[in-house]
Amino acid sequence: MLNRRDAFRGLALTMGMVSVGFAGPVAAALPPLAWTPAALDAEQARALDAAAELIVPKTDTPGAREAKVPQFVDRAVATYLDKPQAELLKTGLSQMNADARAAHGKAFAELTGAQQTALLSRYDQEAAAARKAWKPRHFFSLLKEYVTIGYFISEPGATLALRYEPAPGEYHGCVPLAEIGRAWAL
Amino acid sequence: MANLNGRSRQENTYDAIVVGSGISGGWAAKELTEKGLKTLVLERGPMVRHLEDYPTAMTDPWDTKYPQGKLPAEQLKAQYPVQSRTGYTVNEYTKHFFVRDDENPYTEEERFDWIRSYQVGGRSLTWGRQTYRHSPMDFEANAREGVAIDWPIRYADLAPWYDYVERFIGVSGQNEGLPHLPDGQFQPPMEMNCVERAFKQRVEGRFGERRITMGRCAHLTEPTEEQLSLGRSKCQYRNMCMRGCPFGGYFSSNSATLVAAERTGNLRMRPDSIVTSLIYDAKAGKATGVRILDAQTLKEEEFYAEVIFLCASALNSTWIMLNSTSSRFENGFGNGSDQLGRNVMDHHFRVGAKADVEEFGDKYYSGRRPNGIYIPRFRNLGDAATKKDFLRGYGYQGGASRPGWDRDLAGEGFGADRKAAMSQPGPWTMQLGAFGEILPYEDNRVTLNHAAKDKYGLPTLSAKVTIRENEKAMRKDMQAAAVEMLEAAGFKNVMAADMGYAPGLGIHEMGTARMGRDPKTSVLNAHNQVHECTNVYVTDGAAMTSASCVNPSLTYMALTARAVDHAVQAKRKGDL
Ligand SMILES: Cc1cc2nc3c(=O)[nH]c(=O)nc-3n(C[C@H](O)[C@H](O)[C@H](O)COP(=O)(O)OP(=O)(O)OC[C@H]3O[C@@H](n4cnc5c(N)ncnc54)[C@H](O)[C@@H]3O)c2cc1C
Ligand code: SF4
Question: DSSP states of B192-210 as a string?
C-alpha cells in the first residue's frame, strides 16, 4: 500500500514532467526528511527543509539541501539564537504550515513548487514592508538570513558557489573580476 | 621565609627576572638571554606553544560550532562583557586568547575598556600588528607645549633600537622621507588595490601635505635568514592572524622572541605565575626578587634576581608596583612622585568616513591582505599651514574593499537570482578611520582597590579616565578631513561617522609610570629604571611620557631592548 508520502512523490514526479517548458519553479519533491531535528518539531523541520531549498536553490552549484542548510538552521535554533529569535523562527515555520493548510489544505512541504513560491513571495513582501516601517522583524527575514549564512559558510557554498582559498599565499590588488569569477568566501 | 614549597633560595635565584611574556616581556627575555643572563620569565597566564596551541588556526568556516564563529549573545554577556566591546576581538576562533571578564574584575569609575590577553605571548598573539616609529616631534612636544613633563630621551636615543627591533621582527612598509613619520628597516610593502591607488593619486594631487602610504605592519614579506632560522616564513595573506599564525607570518613573542630566547639555553619560562609584588631590601636599597601566586596550586613562592624587568603591560606593571608596599614605599613601589597610576593615555578613534566607489566594477583582488593604507599625521606639523585649534594630531588607517555575500542578508528577494547576485562581489567601498593622540592628564588615573578582591583574594584596579576638550576638538577635525579626502577623490555617498570612543578601546593603554628626568615628577629615568630603585626596569606602555598618535608597541620593544642593553652594562660595571 502506498503511504501518503510515496503517493505525493509520485504526484510530484508527474507534475514535474508536466511542467517541463513552463518557466515556473519545479515542485520541491517531498523526500523523507534526511535528518533529525534538534530544536524543531517534525512539521516545522519539513517546512524549513522545503523553504531553504527555495531560498537558495540548486543551480549550477549545489542548493541549500545538499549543503545541509536546514540542519544548520535547526542547530542555530537549538544552540545559538536567543530566545525571542528562536521563537520567531519556530512560530514562523508553523505559520507557514497553517497558511498552507488554510489556502490549499496541505502542509507547506506538500504544496506544489509554485504554491510554495507564492507563499514565500508574500512573506518576502511583508518582511520588506515591516523593515521599511521599522516594525518588528518578520520571521521570513530571519529565516532567509540564517539560510543564507548557512549556505555560504557550508563547504559546497563556500567552495563552489563562492571562491575559497584557505592560504592565498599572495595578494594582488587589482585583477580583472572575470579572472576570479565569483566573490571570495572570506 | 615564604618559600612555602621548601625550595632553597639558590634554586629560585636567576640573573634576571622578567614579568610578563607579551610584546615587551618577550623582548626582555630575548635580549637578556642572548646577552648570557640566566633569565626567568614569570607569566600569569597559561602556556601557549607556537603552532601547537593555536587550536583554531586552520578551522574552516563550515567547521565552526556557531554561525560565522560568533558566540551566543548570552555567553558574551556573561563571560566577555568588556572584551566584546570592541565588536571584533572575541569570537569562537579567538576567545581563548582573551581574558574572561567574569574572572578578572576591575572597577570602572567611568567606562574603561580594558582589553587583555593573559597567556604566554600576551597580546602579541592578538595585536593588529600596525607598526610605526614615534617621531622627533613626538619626543619634543611636551616640552615645547608645556604639557605634563618632558621626555628624558629624544628620537636619536631610540633610533638605533628602532632599527634593531624592526630588523628582527620584520616590518613591511614603504619609506616616505617624512620627518614626522620616520622611515625604517622595511621589507617590501604590501600592495594597494585599484581603488586605494586611485585615492592616493587624487588626494596627494589635491593636498600637498597629505601622504597616502601602505600600512606598515609586522608581517614578513621577504624573510631574512634570521627569521627563517627561527622557523618563520612569508605571510600567506590569510588574515586570520588573531587565531595564531601557523606560518609565523606576523611577529609574536611565541613565533619570534621567545624562540630566540629558548635557543640560548638561558631561558626558564614559568607560566601560571601571578607576580603579586616586588621584594624590597631596604638596607641594600634594592629589589631582591618577586613574590608570585601559582595560579594552579595557589601556593606563594619567591624568586630572586639581581635585575628585574616589569613587562606585564602598562596597567598590570602598575598594579604590581601599587601592590608592592613597604615602610620605604608606603604608596607603592618607587612612587615618591605620586605619579604611579596617573596619566593614563590611549588613542581615541572610531571616527572617520566612508564612501561608495562607482568605478572599477570590473576589478577585484585576490588574497586577504592583513593590512590597510595609512595616512600619516598632517596637522600641527610646526608650520602655519598645518596649525589647528587643538594640540597634536592624528593619522588614518583605512582601505577599500568589495563586500561579499553577507552584504545584505535581510534584503529583498530569494531564489536563483539572489543566489547568483550574492555569489558576486558588491560594489567597492572605501573607509578611513582616524587614531588621535590623547594628552597626559594627571587625574586620568588607575588606583588600587582593596575593597574589591579577585578570586585569588588580590586587590584589583579601579579606573577613572576621560577624554577632554583637546580630544573632542580633534575628533571633529578627524571626521571633517576624512570626508574632505573621500570627496576630493570623487567617491560617492560620503558618510561621516563618529561611533563614539571610550578610553581603553584603542587597546593602547599607557603612561602610568612615566619616564622623566626628575624623580619628583616621574617614576622612571631615561633608561626605564625606577628612579628610587634602579635594579627594577619598567619597559612596557607604563613608561610612556606622551602618546603620539601612532600605534605604540614598536616603541615598547625599542625601549625594552635599549633598557636591557643598559642593564647588562650596568651589571657588568657593578652599578645595579
Ligand atoms: C586587538 C588588538 C589590536 C592591537 N593592535 C595593535 C597594533 O596594530 N599596533 C600596536 O602597536 N599595538 C596594537 N595593540 C596593542 C598591543 O597588543 C600592546 O601594545 C602590546 O601587546 C603591549 O605589550 P606588553 O608586553 O606591554 O603587554 P602584553 O602583550 O599585554 O603582555 C603582558 C603580559 O604580562 C602578563 N601579566 C600581566 N600581569 C602579570 C602578573 N601580575 N604576573 C605575571 N604576568 C603578568 C600577561 O598575562 C601578558 O601575557 C593591539 C592590541 C589588541 C588586543
Ligand atoms: S595573514 Fe599572514 S600573518 Fe596572518 S595568519 Fe596569515 S600568514 Fe599568518
Answer: P-HHHHHHHHHHHHH-TT-
